[in-house]
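Researcher: Next sequence.
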Amino acid sequence: MHRDTPQTMRIIITGFPSLENAVKALNCGADAYVMKPIEPEKLLKVVAQKMKEQEEAEKMGQDKVAEWVQARLKRCEEKHEEERALMKGK
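Model: Next structure:
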């Protein structure tokens, strides 16, 4: 699942909790590990927290792309100005 949709948060819910299972789940890419019996309020808090984390990660990704585009545009503009100055000098 992580290979196909790496941005999706994964919450593991188990009826067979153990330290070994928790470690294995987290090492396999789980973002949260919830044990049964599930308290609805606790599950809602976990889901809300993971949704917030996902939104923050998406925002950070968008900001990084915007930074890269701005830096690339600046380099292109500088190169264009250099070429223009060379052409004027000839």
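Model: The first strand starts at residue 11 and ends at 14. The beta strands are 11-14, 32-35.
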